[in-house]
Amino acid sequence: MEKLKKISARWWFFALLLLAQTVLMPFASRNFAPQDIGRIIPATLAGAPQMQLGDWNILFQSVSLLLLVLLLVFRNRVRTLFNAYVAVSYLAFAFIQNVAFTEQYGFSVVTVNLVMFLFVAYVWIREALRPQGRYDFGNFRWKYAWMIVLALFAYWCPFTLRGEADLNPLHFFTHNTATAFCLTTPLFLTVLTLNLPQVNVVTYRITAIIGFIIGCYNMGSFFNPGTVWLGFVHLPLLLISLYCAVLSYRHPAFRP
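Request: output the structure for the sequence above.
Response:
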């Protein structure tokens, strides 16, 4: 992925990402109007399959936690398995979070999210097929400890749907965080950061940049009293993604 590494360091790469935010408009099979984009997107996100998993959550959460435990115990010996899991996760996020059938808009798609999530899935697929990184956790630095705390907070998501604090530890198994881009990406980025500099910088960088963009979108939750809690659970995505994106350019091992 050397070519993508060079491309991602060009100014026009960021210009294309910004342009995509306006060009890739959402799609709706009926009742679509440009002035309704602000309603189509939340309707699609709310009606997406990821919000309807119900009793399946415990299965996906358990698999996710099991993979993390296996990685911590067996480390690089399960590298391919972990990379494949993350790649499949991002493929799933793209479709189960950004595609929906809604009563008002019919078949609808949050196009820009779909494309960005698939971009992240692509770099992880490449890493799964031709791994460049290692998971030895042998270069731990205490300065990264804050990332662990924030990543676990996002994954735990200690809130009810009404926004009330709920510190039940069983939420690690019952909430639908393992199937959510925003709440799982901080964990994946933290795992990579704890293995610096032995990571694929392209995978690290693209995941962080897209994570930061999605995190910025979710900061709008703070402007609605009913969704302030969503803003708090998305802060780890914003902060960790920004930090990792900067590291992917400034870390001594990744400089030209």
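The longest helix spans residues 228-250.
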